Amino acid sequence: MAQREQVEVEESSVLAHFGHMGDTPITITDGDGAYVRDSAGNEYLDFTSQLYCVNAGHGNEAIVSAMNDQLDRVQYVSSAVHNDARTRLADRLADVAPNSLEDVFFSISGSEANEAALQIARQFQDASTVLTRWRSYHGGTYTTAGITGDAAIRLPVESHAQTTGNVKFLPPFQGADPAFDADSPEELAERAADHLEYVIRNQGPDSIAALVTEVVGGSSGAFTAPPGYFERVRDLCDEYEILLIVDEVITGFGRCGDWFGSQTEALEPDMLTFAKGVTSAYAPLAGVLMRPELGDALREDAMDIGQTFAGNPVACAAGVAAIDEYEDFIPNVRQLAPTLREKLEELERHPAVCDVRGRGFHWAVEFADPDTGEPVFDPRIEHGHNPVDDIVAVAREEGVLIGGGRPSIQVTLSPPFCVDERDIENAV
Ligand code: PLP
Known about the structure:
Layout: E1 28-32, E2 35-38, E3 43-46, H1 49-52, H2 61-73, H3 84-96, E4 103-107, H4 110-125, E5 129-133, H5 142-146, H6 151-158, E6 167-170, H7 185-203, E7 208-214, H8 229-240, E8 243-247, H9 261-264, E9 271-274, E10 286-290, H10 292-300, H11 313-346, E11 353-359, E12 362-367, H12 387-397, E13 400-401, E14 403-405, E15 410-413, H13 421-427
Parallel strand pairs: 3-13, 5-6, 5-7, 7-8, 8-9
Antiparallel strand pairs: 1-2, 2-3, 4-10, 9-10, 11-12, 12-15, 14-15
The protein binds pyridoxal-5'-phosphate (PLP).
Pyridoxal-5'-phosphate binds near residues 114, 138 and 247.
Protein name: Aspartate aminotransferase family protein
GO molecular function: transaminase activity
Keywords: Aminotransferase, Pyridoxal phosphate, Transferase
């Protein structure tokens, strides 16, 4: 990788996103496979995939070449007009998606895909309440921050946005401050599903448009559902006629070892939102995959929603090429996921580690309070010094990028799919 001129961040006009992730005093200038380099010439093994996006790694020639070919033909077409790259990508997505999903509505970001899914659900159901989960993340727009279970993100918008109303929260499954006392994963699944049914019955099923859930929690800490939970969720949604929207913005496109996390969990959603990995982040693209009856309803009763850059042909060409690449990369995830899991689970023997959880190439390691040995839960952690920043900074000094999380002390490890066994060993 070439060395670049140093950039003075302190004097720049750029305002940072996701300020709660702590100060990141590096400027990335180059990427190659699973590695990135900063402006000072330091190289890092990137176990964040840059916000869980760059699944195929940096500098993938097939994706770059597909984008260049598309740029040579036509670089932009109105989103109200069809373009062949978009049609090809829609067909490829329907091929690899869970069987229940056939139609696609494209967006630009994961937040906008979730916004669209909520709007479609509320209109189709003629109901407004949305069920979601504490310690989830669904986006940075008013509505999606409003269904996000991370108090630090939700509260600032909730206090002054009417659009976030009619949202009810369900508890996560593990981690600090657990809501259910259960002796086995099966009992946990039963308790969590019974609680969901209790909420539905007391809320009034007819008032509920949708349940939105990640299949494996994302930036909130890779929470996995206990076995049998999602089967009950599907049954309850059918019984009470509630649409099940699965947010696969992180878990889509091989991150859990299958094309989608829903397939890993044997779950058939009514809608599935995706972003990030669809193009391996070579261009911004997102969307909502949905059941044909919802697609037909949109065709018949066209909702006047859309975005100028949704389904941009260059982004869609990147998407088709990325999906072709994943055909080869997903077997690598499947093959190496047990190694990553074993190595991380060895950390559980360390007295500072209280939980290790995840699927495929998406894991969280949670740390205990050194004095009590217990998990730490503090929704105000972002206002003071977050100990996670220290852990992330030490890893960075050692040449590995990992993600930080709240409101407990946890880090996430989500490598690109092109890593090998030695990379995993080095990072862990
Ligand atoms: N949903 C999940 C699970 C996410 O992790 C994210 C972003 O990190 C989003 C939605 C929002 O996506 P975007 O940042 O592209 O708007």
